[in-house]
Amino acid sequence: MRKFFENVQKKTARHPLLSCFLTAILLNLFVELLSRRSFISLAVFVGTRPHIFLFNACIIFWSFSLLLLVRRKLFLSAVISVIWLILGIVNFVLLGCRVTPFNGADLRLTKDAMAVAGKYLSWWHLVLLIIAVAALLAALVILFRKLPRSEKKPSYIKSLIFVVFSFMALLGINSVGKSTGVLANQFGNLAQAYQDYGFSYCFANSLINTGISKPGDYSTEVVREIKEEEIVPEEHVSAPFVVENRPDVVNEQGVAVTEKTPNIIFLQLESFSDPLKYLHMECSEDPIPNFRKLMEQYSSGYLWVPSVGAGTANTEFEVITGMNLDFFGPGEYPYKTVLQKQVSESICFDLKEIGYHAQAIHNNSGTFYDRYTVFSQLGFDTFTSLEYMTGYDTTYMGWAKDEILTEQIAKVLNSTSGADVIYTISVQGHGSYPQEKVLDSPAVRVTGLPTEGETNAMEYYVEQIHEMDIFVGELISYLESRDEETILVMYGDHLPSLNLTEDKLENGDLFQTEYVIWDNMGLARTSRNVEAYQLGAYVMDKAGLKKGTMFRYHQAYLQKTSHTAEEEETYLNDMKILEYDILYGDQDVFEGDMPYEATNLHMGVQPVSINRVLLQNKGLYVTGWNYTKNSVIYVNGKAWETNCVSQNLLYAADVKLKEGDNEITVSQVSDDNIVLSVSEPYILKQEKKDGSEGS
Question: Which Gene Ontology cellular component terms are annotated (predicted)?
Answer without folding.
Answer: plasma membrane
